Amino acid sequence: MRASFAAEMMKLRRRPALWVLLGVWFLLALAFGYLIPYALYQNPPAGMGVPEQDQILASIVPGGWLGNVVSGFPLFGAAMLVIAGALVVGSEYGWSTMGTVMTQRPGRLQVLAGKLAALAVVAVAFEVIVFAPGALASAIIGGAVDGPVDWPAVPEMLEVFAAGFLIFFTWAALGALLAVLFRGTSLPIGLGLVWLLVIEGLIAGFAGSLEVLETIRQGLPGANGGSLAATYPPTGVAETPGVSAVTGPVHAAAVLALWAMGAMAVSAYFLRRRDVT
Amino acid sequence: MTTVRFTDITKRFATTPALSGVTAATGPGITGLLGPNGAGKTTLLRILATVLAPDHGRVEILGLDPGDREERTEIRRRLGYLPQEAGFHPRFTAFEFVDYVAILKELDDRRARHAEVHRVLEVVGLGNVAGKRIKTLSGGMRRRLGLAQALLARPEVLLLDEPTAGLDPEQRLRFRQLVSGEHGRTVVLSTHQTEDVAALCSRVVVMDRGAVRFDGTPAALARVASGRVWIADTEASLGAAVSWRTGDGRVRHVGNAPAGAEIAAPTLEDGYLLLIHQNRTDEEAA
Asked: Do B73 and A105 touch (CB under 8 A)?
C-alpha cells in the first residue's frame, strides 16, 4: 500500500483539476464566510437592526471561527470532495491506466487503499485551506472592529477538525465508489452532485409531511453531515444551507462513518471482482 | 527451460467464451502469439500478466502460481507487461510516467529508481525526450514509452500485446530492434501481423476463436502451406482459401491449385492464412 500511496500522491500533485477545486473552494469559503458577511456588517441594508449586525460580527471574529468555517462543509465542501473522489479513482479508467497500475506489485486492494489514503490527505488539505485563512480573516476582522479575540480552546479545534474530516472523507469515499461502479468520472460526478444538491434537498423538503422520509433522512450522508456541522453553529447565523440538526452529533458521526466504511467496502468488492477495463 | 506454462485455460465474459482449453508452454526467447482479432490473444496475455484470473485451468510463471497472493506478487516483481492500449497520465513527462510506475513496482531508493528510469528510457531511445510531456510525443514514442515501463527492474518475463499496432514502418523496425535485443528473457509477443513473427520469433503459437491451432516454429507454420501456394494469371480458383493480385499483376492463391498455376514457395503468412481458413471451414462443417 505504501507504494501505491506514494505513486498516487505523485500523481495528485500534478493534477490541475484538484488544484482548481482547492482554489475554488478557498475562494468560495473566504467570500461567503468572511468577505460578504463583513461587507454586510459594514454596510447594513435597510431594515437590518443592530442585533442582526452583532450576530454577523460574532460569526466572523475569532470566537465564531470554527463554526463559521465548518458550516460550509456539508454542502459546498462536500460537493468539492465528491468531485475529488470521483476524479482520483475514475480518471484511471478514462486514461486506460488501470491495467498498467494493476500489473505492478501492489494488489488491487492495495491500489484502492493507496487511493483512499491519498483522498484522506486531500480531505485534510481541503480543511487546512479554509481553516487557516479563516483564522487569519477572523483575527484581522476582530482587530479591525476592535471586537473580542476569544479563540476556541485547542480540544474544540481538534474536535471540529475531526468532524470536518469525517464529512469530507465520507463524500470523497462516495465519489470514489461511484467512480468504481461506473468506471469513469463524468457520470459519477454528476450523480454525486445530483444526490447531494438535489435528492437530499427534496427528501428534506418532503420529510415534514411523510414520516417514512424523515426516517430515511436520518440515515443519509448529507443530512448527517449537516447535523454534525450544526453541532458547532456559527454564532449569529440563523440558517446555513445544508446545516441543520436533524440528528444528534453522535448519531451523525456514526452514520457518516458507516457510509464511509460501506463505500470503501463496496468499492473494494467491485474493484476486486470485476475486470479492470 | 520452461518459464511460462498454461494448461487447459478457459475464460468466459458473461456468455461469450474467450478461451476454451488453451494449453502451451514456452521458455527464454521470443514467442509470437499470432491470431486474428478476437482470437483470445489479449485475454490470454492479461491472464499471464495477472490482470485476470482464468475460470478454469492452471497457469505457472517462473514456477509460481498467480492464484496464490504471495506468489502473484513475486511474479509481478519479475514480469513486465505492455498492455494493448497502454494509457498514460496526460500531465506526466516521459520520465515522470516511468518513475510513477517504478514507485508502484516498489523501487524505493530514490536515487537507484531514477537511475533505473533513465536506463530504460535510454534503452528505448527516449533519453533525449525524458522531460517532455507525454501528450507531445508521437504514437511510436508513446509505444516505446510503454515498453520502457515494462522493462523496469529487468523483468525475466516480458509480455507485449500488439506492440507494433498502428506504427509506421520505421517505428516498427525500431521496435523490432528493441525487442530482438532482449536476450535471455522470455518474451511473449501478441500480434496479428505475420511480418513481426517472421522477423522476431523463434516460436509461434497460432490462436483462433479462443483455442490454440498451431504451436511450433515459424518455418513449420510456413510448411503448413507447403504444396498449397500457387501463382497464376487467373483470379478464379474454387478451392483457394485466399487469393490476391500481387504487384507484378499475377494472382497468388493459397489452397487448391487453379488451372495452369505454378507452385510457389510458402511463406509464414501463407501457412497462417491456410490454417485459419481450414479451422473456420472445419468448424462450419461440424
From this structure: yes
What single letter denotes the amino acid at residue A67? G
CA distance B213 to chain A (A): 27
CATH classification code of B1-78+156-216? 3.40.50.300
Residue-wise pLDDT tens digits, B181-225:
767 889 999 988 888 898 899 999 999 999 999 999 999 999 998
Q: How many independent structural domains does chain A possess?
A: 1
Complex ipTM more than 0.85, yes or no? no
Give residue A229's domain range: 2-273
Which sequence spans correspond to the domains of chain B? 1-78+156-216, 86-151, 222-285
pLDDT band at B81 (very low <50, low <70, confident <90, very high): very high
**Residue A237 pLDDT exceeds 70:** no
Number of inter-chain CB pairs under 8 A, A vs B = 76
**Residues in A touching B101 (Cβ below 8 Å):** 7, 100, 104
User: Which of A210-243 are b and which e, b meaning 16 or more Cβ less than 10 Å from the residue's Cβ?
Assistant: eeebbeebbebbbbbbbbbbbbbbbbbbeebebb
Closest CA to B55 of B102, B18, B85: B18
Question: Between A47 and A127, where is the model more confident?
Answer: A127
Residues of A with CB under 8 A from a CB of B: 3-4, 6-7, 10-11, 14-16, 92, 95-107, 275-276
* Residue B73 with chain A: CB contacts under 8 Å: 105, 107
Binary contact (A96, B85; C-beta < 8 A):
yes
By the 10 Å C-beta count (0-12 exposed, 13-18 middle, 19+ buried), A154 is classed as exposed
Residue among B46, B104, B142 with most chain A CBs within 10 A, to mutate: B104
Helix (H) or strand (E) holding B82: strand B79-82
Cβ contact B53:B47 at 8 Å: yes
Q: Which residue of B has its CA nearest to A93?
A: B87
Please tell me the least confidently modeled range out of A8-22, A185-199, B54-68, B167-181: B167-181
Q: Which of A226-240, B4-18, B115-129, B143-157 has the lowest mean pLDDT?
A: A226-240
Phi then psi dihedrals of residue A218, to 5 deg? -70, -10
